[in-house]
Specification:
Order of helices and strands: EEEHHHH
Helix content: 40-55%
Distance between the termini: 44 Å
Number of strands: 3
Largest sheet: 3 strands, antiparallel
Shape: extended
Length: 102
């Protein structure tokens, strides 16, 4: 799998792709990164997003991370048991727009 190092430039391009230890300067736009990463496995994209968020905003406290883990496990169990159901994003967005009057 290919990997990359991200460096934001003034013109919002990024540079320095590498494959098998070879680095070359090929500036990429955000759209090109989205296109490239859309072909990656879901877990690789999730790891990239986590790493970007941590680099940008820092880590999460252990207390907060444990709380979010508990919420995720509880919600997953509710979905598995049928106690809760998923709502498609477009339906949820329509409900929100109705509530806020848009």
């Amino acid at each position: 799998m290919r990997g990359f190092f991200v460096r934001w430039l003034p013109n919002r391009e990024v540079a320095s792709w590498h494959e098998n230890g070879t680095v070359w300067g090929m500036p990429m736009t955000a759209d090109q990164i989205v296109e490239e990463t859309s072909q990656w496995p879901v877990d690789a994209v999730a790891e990239l997003l986590d790493r970007i968020a941590l680099a940008k905003h820092g880590g999460m406290s252990a207390t907060r991370e444990n709380a979010w883990t508990e919420v995720a496990l509880r919600r997953s169990a509710e979905l598995d048991s049928g106690k809760a159901e998923l709502i498609p994003g477009d339906v949820a967005s329509a409900r929100i727009r109705k509530i806020v009057g848009r």
